[in-house]
Amino acid sequence: MTRSEAVEAVVKVMSPYIGSTMARSATEAHCQKLGIAGGPVGPEQREALLGKLAGGLNIFLGRDKSASVIADVRRAFEALEGP
Amino acid sequence: MSETRGKGLLPWAILGAAVALYVGWALAPASALYTRLLGPHRLVALASLLKLVYLLAGSASAFRCRDRLEPGNPARPAWFFLSLGLLSTFVGQLCLAPFQVVRNQTPFPSVADIFFVLAYPFIIAALLVLLNAYREAGLPIGSVGERAAIVTGVGVIAGLVVLPILRPVALTGGPLLERILTVAYPVLDLVLLVPLALLLRIALRLRGSHAGDVWVLLLGGFVVLCMADIFFAYFQSLGEEHLDPFVHASFVLSYGLIAGGAHRQLQLLKT
Predict the structure, then answer these.
(1) How many angstroms from the chain centroid is the CA of residue B8?
(2) pLDDT tens, A5-62?
């Protein structure tokens, strides 16, 4: 899974809750801070990104719902990575 | 499903009808609806009750949002402060209600103003806590320079637009406390507009989403509140009685939008 694929997956899942613009800009900003560049996203980077996204989503949705949305993002990542 | 949608639209239809009623009063005060059927006393009493309902509903929804968010969530105190701000405004309105409903009078200044003024620190604190929560979560709230430019921009707009509007109000010969309070409300609104302007950046990025709906309603409500206070300042200090219907329309709309925003956030947390 590349950075751009990860960003698109996050945008698709999180858009209904926080809008595509916010989902994209927040994910891009987190990727930059975590050093996720153009290459493949490693498992540690993926988990760190999910953690950062959960922190932001918490403010709007609360912990439980945020966890549920992050689980959807994780599934989207896993689908991208394949079996 | 259409029944649920209908139920969801009903409060907005009521709010729209209420605002239209008061705007109609301003535009056609001599029509039979306002002279024979309703009359100024009934209209003032109805506005008083509508304001109480929206303020109580808004405060309750904001408090339930606080309850739904887990301890330690950075947004939790913000909803608590907003709840307190709306509750304080509700108590102020409750102090006025007997005079408005029974006697068709709105005493000013009165004990109600203590609660109206007290609401501002709570609401401003709510917005600042949210801003800080967004910053800590790494959401794009802009660089220090961008934020400084927004604050400066709001200050310049306030200086150029709002202060000249308030100048004749401040120069009237009424009692000092009355003049101070009349000017204080719009000035406090301007202070409120600073964090709102900073939050507008976030709100624009949230557009088209559930969280975006919350911010459209809240920001709209606070902007209309600013307009309502300016209408009130002109009505109260300069005797511009034709503005009275607009005062009621804008306060009802403002409280309705804020209550709607808090309710929308509650739905977002519940569903």
Answers:
(1) 21
(2) 999 999 999 999 999 999 999 999 999 999 998 788 888 999 999 999 999 999 999 9
Q: How far is CA B81 from CA A60, B149, B203, B210, in A?
A: 16, 27, 20, 22
d(CA A63, CA B35): 54
Contacts of A20 in chain B (CB under 8 A): 208
Cβ atoms of residues B104 and B41 within 8 Å: yes
CB–CB of A51/A70 below 8 Å?
no
User: For A76, how many CA atoms within 13 A lie in the half-sphere containing its CB?
Assistant: 18
Range of the domain at A67: 3-81
Q: Using the structure block, give the residue that is written with the tokens 């980077």.
A: A45
Token pair listed for A82: 């394949």
Nearest to B269 among A20, A25, A62 (CB): A62
**Whole-prediction pTM:** 0.90
What is the rounded CA–CA span in Å between residue B188 and residue B198?
16
Query: Structural domains in chain B?
Result: 2-270 (1.20.1070)
Q: Where are the beta strands (DSSP E) in chain B?
A: none
Of B69, B75, B205, which has the smallest distance from its Cβ to A22's Cβ?
B205
Q: pLDDT by residue (tens digit) across B165-216?
A: 777 777 777 788 888 888 888 888 888 888 888 888 888 889 899 999 999 9
Let me know if A15 is exposed, middle or buried by CB neighbors in 10 A (0-12, 13-18, 19+): middle
